[in-house]
Structures are given as structure tokens and as C-alpha cells.
Design brief:
- With 167 residues, the protein is mainly alpha-helical.
- It is 50% helix and 7% strand.
- The protein has helices at residues 16-30, 38-44, 46-52, 60-72, 82-90, 98-101, 120-129, 148-165; strands at 107-112, 133-138.
- The protein has a two-stranded parallel sheet with strand order 1-2.
- α7 links the parallel β1 and β2 (133-138).
- The model is unreliable at 1-6 (pLDDT under 50).
Length: 167
């Protein structure tokens, strides 16, 4: 059952702690250096992935495979900044979320309680905005899930949701 949002979470100013979390995440991403070799550049991403993985043990093979794909997917070196651009423009354009109110499908919103990119209150707000949503909070999960047991847990949640809602 959904509760209505008493305050618009998107317009409430960040707390000092939330600002520190976002600033630290930004600092980590800005510290990623291009290496002398492609392999070194891939390795230089690991501290950022470790931070985004939060309390789950980082599976370096999964993280490295993702990084290789991420770095080779496009010829445009600025493409990696799309996430940063999205976040900087996010609050300014939050009114676009009105379209979510019109979503008439059962929707599963999975969010980590340690996400240092999309704060927990925003994940909850997305679930609150979508009429037929179910919010699942995963303790210790950050923004990424480079961990095989966590991947399996998320996949099971999705499969169970699809099975339940396909009847």
C-alpha cells in the first residue's frame, strides 16, 4: 500500500551528511586517472567501483569486465560524463517525473541503503510516485552491484516480481 508524500523529497535541501556523501563520490570519480596502458586505466577505476559497491565485497572480475565494456563502447571520451550531467540536471528537471504518476504497470523499485549517487530518499520517492510500485531496500548495497551473490539476489527479486505480476 502506498503512502502519499508529505513533502517533495526532490526539493528539500540536502542535509550536511548527504552533501558530504555526494561530494566524496564526485571526488572519487574525478580522481580516476587515465593510465599509461588500457589495463592500467581499467585498474584505476577499481577504487570508484569499490566505493559505489558500498558494503558488498567487490568482485574485481565483474568490475573490470564492466569497465572494459564501458571504455570501449564509445569513441566519445565525454560519454563517461553523462551520469554526472544527468545528476547535475536532475533536481532542476524533477518535474518530468510527473510521467511516472501515469505508469499503470506493476513496478519494482530496488534501491541500496548505501547508494552514494542516488540518495535513498530519491529512490523511495520514485516508488511513491509510481502508483503500482513495490519498493525493495537492500541493506549494504550501493549504486553498483559488482558482487555475484548480490546479482543473484537482484535477479531473483526481478524474476519473482515478474512471475507474480504476469498472472
Amino acid at each position: 500500500m502506498h503512502h502519499s508524500i508529505k513533502k517533495n523529497e526532490w526539493t528539500i535541501p540536502l542535509t550536511e551528511n548527504e552533501q558530504k556523501i555526494l561530494d566524496y563520490t564526485s571526488k572519487i570519480f574525478h580522481s580516476i586517472k587515465e593510465g599509461k596502458t588500457f589495463e592500467e586505466t581499467v585498474k584505476n577505476h577499481l577504487p570508484a567501483w569499490r566505493h559505489l559497491n558500498a558494503e558488498y565485497l567487490l568482485d574485481e572480475e565483474l568490475a573490470n569486465n564492466f569497465t572494459i565494456d564501458f571504455l570501449t563502447r564509445t569513441k566519445n571520451k565525454n560519454a563517461g560524463k553523462n551520469h554526472e550531467l544527468m545528476m547535475s540536471d536532475f533536481l532542476a528537471n524533477i518535474k518530468r517525473l510527473d510521467v511516472l504518476k501515469k505508469t499503470n504497470l506493476s513496478t519494482l523499485v530496488i534501491h541500496g541503503d548505501k547508494d552514494p549517487v542516488v540518495l535513498l530518499r530519491y529512490g523511495k520517492s520514485v516508488a511513491d510516485i509510481i502508483p503500482k510500485s513495490k519498493f525493495v531496500l537492500i541493506k549494504g548495497m550501493g549504486h553498483t552491484f559488482f558482487n555475484r551473490s548480490l546479482e543473484e539476489k537482484i535477479a531473483k527479486l526481478i524474476v519473482d516480481h515478474l512471475k507474480k505480476n504476469s498472472k
